[in-house]
Specification:
This protein is α/β, with parallel strands linked by helices. It is 27% helix and 27% strand. It contains 15 helices and 33 strands.
Length: 552
């Protein structure tokens, strides 16, 4: 007997589940119910249409009810909102939002893919005609209509995550002045402060005013005819803006699941097992609405990302038709464009490792995106976090103009495959001068981490500079020209690495020598030289460049 599968919600998770279910069974009755007007659209592309980089609105519409029906024989009902789930009798209650007609549908299997909704804090005056969030096509249309009608000169974006950063850039593309307000001391929470500081510089270079460590407290009451809002921040700062974008985060859409009595996890998402089953064996859940397990810790996490949602939708369909495969946890691998830079990460960041009490070590590599002698090479900054006892990869972050996706993708695959930092140094990656280096950035990170693991090099971090003792010497081995141009770290003495052998008399062998250069490479050479001569030496990973990023 053929199955009847109802899917609540489309886009990444729901549409993937429907398409996979049809490919597995031609006789199943499959119905998608979507309360919005679109079944499958490129929600990650919305800011780029607002900016004008994606010119055609139609390019964002990946499937329509008609095309989905024609290709997959799936009954797609847009603007049909599910009001309730009766899991005991296995039917749902639905309302057509165009006609207000209400009806029911029975199911054999139900898949929930309601997504996540923008979190709007309870701020006085926030509900007004000049304030918007961005989740779907109608939201995008409303923002563009507001821009067309009111012609704003200034916009405020609240939130420095993916959507907030992309919207800030989109508005600057339209020559609108932008102020970005973020409660945390940095934008882009998945990365650590020294990586985020490069984004801060990039944003300010493109004339985005940053208000970090601040939050919107109040919006003055306004009339429908007003074209300006008066904002007050939590530090008392007041200013005017013509458009307000709320992008402080998202929360799982769990209202239907909660009313149906499904189990909700500690983070507020629908709890599912490794087969994407909810607490009811006939109801599956996928995408932004669920809690999944973190790849590193095995603990619950929320991951509102398209890649995991697609995989989960496909997996749910496979399980419904008899597969025993399981979901292999989530690494949270992600990337974001911030004007001319890309920033990407995978696994855990340092903040999370500290909060969870996980033992870790870190190294930094600053290198070129491809061979430096070939035109067009750009700097790549990579931070690698690993277990100092086993070499297991805990996480990585990278930022730069070119090749960022490639490096983080490689490390993400290595982490998922259970490789260690020792394996990173041996990875055989593509090389030709226009594309990379004979020793890639990933190889270099593996080599540095492996040296630390094997005891071939002892490293220290910028944090150690806050508590130097009289038994330590801070040694800068950059050239005099570099020091003159960029300065010294306070308390350091300068002996260029190429002059080190002839100036050993300046170094007290009874003291620990803390060496640094610009990015760590010459520091390593100096550290090995001094170590072989009997000195106690540590090299600052990432060098002066990392120190500047940390202390910005």
């Amino acid at each position: 007997m053929s199955k009847k599968i109802l899917i609540i919600g489309g886009v990444a998770g729901g549409a993937s589940a429907a398409a996979r279910a049809r490919r597995l069974d031609e006789t199943a009755e499959i119905i998608i119910l979507e309360r919005g007007p679109h079944i499958s659209f490129a929600n990650c592309g919305l800011p780029y249409h607002i900016s004008g980089e994606i010119e055609l609105r139609e390019a964002l519409l990946l499937q329509t009810p008609k095309s989905f029906k024609k290709r997959f024989n799936v009954d797609v009902r847009v603007q049909n909102e599910v009001l309730a789930i009766n899991k005991e009798e296995k039917f749902i209650h639905i309302q057509n939002t165009l006609t207000n007609e209400q009806y029911t549908e029975t199911y054999d299997v139900l898949i929930l893919s309601p997504g996540a909704s923008p979190f709007i804090p309870p701020i006085s005056g926030i509900n007004n005609h000049l304030t918007h969030s961005l989740r779907n096509i109608p939201d995008m249309d409303a923002i563009m209509a507001s821009i067309a009608q009111n012609k704003p000169q200034h916009a405020t974006v609240c939130g420095g995550g993916f959507i907030g950063l992309e919207m800030a850039e989109a508005l600057r593309h339209r020559k609108i002045d932008v102020t970005l307000v973020e409660l945390a001391p940095q934008v882009m929470a998945p990365v650590d402060i020294e990586i985020a500081n490069m984004l801060h510089d990039e944003l300010e270079a493109h004339h985005v005013e940053l208000k970090l460590g601040k939050a919107l407290k109040e919006v003055a009451l306004c009339e429908e005819t007003d074209r300006t809002l008066s904002l007050t921040l939590n530090d008392g700062t007041q200013f005017q803006t013509d458009l307000l974008i709320m992008a402080v985060g998202v929360k799982p859409e769990t209202s239907l699941a909660m009313k149906a009595g499904l189990e909700i996890g500690e983070l507020g998402g629908i709890r599912v097992d490794e087969y994407m089953r909810s607490s009811d064996p006939c109801i599956f859940a996928v995408g932004d609405a669920i809690e999944t397990l973190d790849f590193v810790t095995g603990e619950a996490m929320l991951a509102p990302l398209a890649g995991p949602a697609n995989r989960q939708g496909r997996l749910a369909a496979n399980v419904i038709f008899g597969s025993t495969e399981t979901y292999k946890k989530t690494q949270g691998t992600a990337i974001c464009k911030v004007f001319d830079l890309a920033v990407a990460s995978t696994g855990l960041n340092e903040k999370t490792l500290i909060r969870k009490g996980i033992v870790y070590e870190k190294v930094y590599v600053h290198a070129a995106s491809h061979a430096g002698y070939y035109p067009g090479a750009h700097p790549v900054t990579l931070k690698l976090l690993f277990n100092p006892d086993t070499g297991a990869i805990l996480g990585a972050q990278a930022v730069g103009k070119e090749g960022i996706d490639k490096r983080i993708d490689v490390i993400s695959v290595a982490q998922r495959a259970g490789l260690s930092v020792f394996d990173l140094q041996d990875l055989e990656l593509c090389y030709a001068p226009p594309f990379g280096s004979a020793r890639d950035v990933v190889n270099q990170a593996g080599l540095v981490a492996s040296n630390v693991m094997k005891g071939d090099e002892f490293i220290f971090h910028t944090e150690s500079l806050n508590c130097l003792s009289e038994q330590q010497i801070l040694l800068d081995v950059r050239t005099e020209a570099e020091v003159t141009k960029m300065g010294l770290i306070p308390g350091a003495i300068n002996i260029p690495v190429d002059e080190l052998r002839s100036n050993l008399y300046k170094l007290d062998q009874s003291k620990e020598i803390l060496v640094y250069c610009q990015v760590g490479v010459r520091g390593h050479v100096a550290a090995r030289l001094l170590t072989n001569l009997g000195y106690m030496v540590k090299n600052m990973t990432g060098g002066f460049k990392t120190w500047k990023l940390v202390t910005r």
